[in-house]
Amino acid sequence: MKAMPRWMIRTLMAALMFGLTVAGSFAEAEPGAGEVSALVSPLQGPFQSMTADELFAKLLEQNRLRDLRLQRYSAVRTYNVASDKGKIYAEDVVRVEYRAPDHKTFVISSEKGSTLVRNLVLNRLIESESETSSGQAHRDSSMTPANYEFNLLGEQNVGPYHCLVAEVTPRRMDKYLFEGRVWINTEDYAIVRIAGQPAKSLSFWITRADFVRQYEKIGEFWFPAQDQTLVHMRVAGNKILSIQHHDYVVNEDTNENGRTITSENRATPTR
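^ that's the sequence the OP posted. Answer follows.
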């Protein structure tokens, strides 16, 4: 399979790292839960007098409480880089292990497609998430009042979930922050869906990069279900990164054989 040129891969990687890093900043939310209803309705009933600051505070507090109860989880991710015509450049299947408070490991279980794309895009995406899951990099991209402000727009359904919709504006121009919208479940104030674009241009070669993350609820916790980043490039057409998250095991010990990628030890992919 013919690989993309190196300049294209570097440009694509910048956009895909944005999509994964921004989406990965919101570690608890839901579904892969169906369609978004057509219209955002005005705030009604108990939410009519709610302010954006109150919604933000409820979201942060409920996330904090869920974090305290989440000790560990494992999941399988399928990473896929393709053109908008359906041509697949590379695919990795990866097992993710999380241990509280902020430790993640990634084990590649299968690979196919371009070795170059896997090395320069997928493996570096995995390393980037390992590096940003804790410490200053995590704080710099997290959903906090220091990084974002909310403008409450109204109410809307996402699949079976009734949500409050907020416009999200970054407080500074940063390539790891975004502008867009979040959908927050009215029952437990968890994020159901995120959609947006980078707050800062990623490259001359990228005219636009749009990402969507959807989530699913497992027990009392909310986890990513699907990510998609669509990268519009000036001379190379559109490229798509898709990540499917599945096979979650929550608060149980798990152990799988495989090849581990961390920021300190990047394994060499094989075909």
